[in-house]
Amino acid sequence: MGGQPAGDGFAGITGDLVDGRFSEKEAKPIANQNSRLLRVRLGEPFMARQGAMVAYQGNVDFAFEGGGASKFIKKALTGEGLPLMRCQGQGDVFLAERAYDVHLLNLDNTGLSISGKNVLAFSSSLDWNIERVKGGSMVAGGLFNTTLRGSGWVALTTDGPPVVLNAAEAPTFADTNAVVAWSANLQTQLKTSFKAGALIGRGSGEAVQVSFYGPGFVIVQPSEGTPPVATAH
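Given the sequence above, the corresponding structure tokens read:
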């Protein structure tokens, strides 16, 4: 690649950071700038995780999106936190979360269940709600997900390259801390094993997985999240 033309603000500076390879990609309105950064060119408003904006150009307005009283109560009761902001105006917005991998999906009159911590952004045309994972109860942790339904786009994050499993091929099980998202039509059930806890759990003596059945897919990341901090006795 050649250098930037003289007199354009890059004059006298050379190197890979200014040779064009990291310049803004503008082929599509909504696309990955790179594997860990999403670029959204504003047309219709969209929702994004609060704090996920790392840069923007243009006249963009960011506003708190509470989702209404019922969703606020669900967040408080379930711990399924999804702090959102509404982004609107004109310009480009760049979004990222802890340098996690960013993946863009398009929904066409369907539903996707996503762990709240893995939601980066989604189009305002999608309906979202906090729903209980079937087969679970309110007293157990990690059993509430954010469900998106309708037609539009969604960007989710994974802590490392994920695996996408076809649940129609065989009964599928995933650790509650590692599962990222799944087709909303899948049948789910919780599977708990005390005996296997020390082997396939996280050392707590209890292993909890979500089982999936039916036609659809399950996205699992190669991480179970931040390990618990050891406390002194």
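Helices lie at 69-78, 197-200. Try to locate this feature in the token string yourself.
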